[in-house]
Fold this sequence. Notes:
Blueprint: H1 2-35, H2 41-61, H3 68-74, H4 87-96, H5 102-105, H6 109-120, H7 122-130, H8 136-155, H9 157-160, H10 171-194, H11 200-207, H12 213-240, H13 249-271, H14 275-279, E1 282-286, H15 294-304, H16 306-316, H17 330-352, H18 358-363, E2 365-369, H19 375-386
Antiparallel strand pairs: 1-2
Helix pairs in contact: 1-2, 1-11, 1-12, 6-10, 7-8, 7-10, 8-10, 12-13, 13-15, 13-16, 16-17
Amino acid sequence: xxxxxxxxxxxxxxxxxxxxxxxxxxxxxxxxxxxxxxxxxxxxxxxxxxxxxxxxxxxxxxxxxxxxxxxxxxxxxxxxxxxxxxxxxxxxxxxxxxxxxxxxxxxxxxxxxxxxxxxxxxxxxxxxxxxxxxxxxxxxxxxxxxxxxxxxxxxxxxxxxxxxxxxxxxxxxxxxxxxxxxxxxxxxxxxxxxxxxxxxxxxxxxxxxxxxxxxxxxxxxxxxxxxxxxxxxxxxxxxxxxxxxxxxxxxxxxxxxxxxxxxxxxxxxxxxxxxxxxxxxxxxxxxxxxxxxxxxxxxxxxxxxxxxxxxxxxxxxxxxxxxxxxxxxxxxxxxxxxxxxxxxxxxxxxxxxxxxxxxxxxxxxxxxxxxxxxxxxxxxxxxxxxx
Length: 387
């Protein structure tokens, strides 16, 4: 019995690292825009909340019967919803048969299933109050909606992925889940006073103006991921509509070059930031405070992204013959130099020397933080102006 209850948790533990990699960048973007930083206690709480949600979902959908055909042909207890409130009390009385000793009670499966139904959404109520600041009635309503979603998932056989219902839809589960969430919400009051306060606006005032290494790295990661997604989308659409793009890297070279020019040069020339830097509330300026022009941005981005575009050039060469074409050696030589400059010199300068990176020295540019009005303050100011 305990193995059945522990299996969803162990499954969630094995899947969670993949979930972290998927949500790492979006969580960082939201954190920097709301709090001015991506670390700290709040981030730990957010990832704890994500793990809890994953474990709750796994508790709902697994274990799956191993043989769907045989199971659906021989088992039908879950095909009809259980709509009698407090039916679990009757089941408990039937199992106990008057024996209410502690040793007997803890051996009843209905006791453990009831306790699990109470506990599964209790953390949701806690997080909704402590992390989100949600009031009682909206939190209870949301918990009921989540419980209903779980029950419908079971009733429909994982939304018809499984050929039949393998878990029982029970109105008791809806009630117990909601009560558990309410208990969690109530406990968040006294327990929240013992934990560090979640104050995004206070953190913004403290951290929003800091241009940290992690902030710059997340901005670069956002640009690279965004550019790769954009390139894949554009190339895919061209291929879909019968364009001339072939399967070789050289065939896609002009398209990639144009998109790179737009993303890394044209957009920052017009707005002062790449898309990734804008997401992290950063802007590129000249060291004298003036706006960075196209030449300085071209030098900056060309050096910083040199490993990527040199690797692309290497992949675009259809036939390597350094004896007949010795100029081809410039590509691997340049790639080695760029890897040293970007992969070794830049981290040493930024992480350990607290100095300007090579691409910043050559272009005479640096990152500055963009101060933006948080949503709550913006709504308050709009309301005052309207009044």
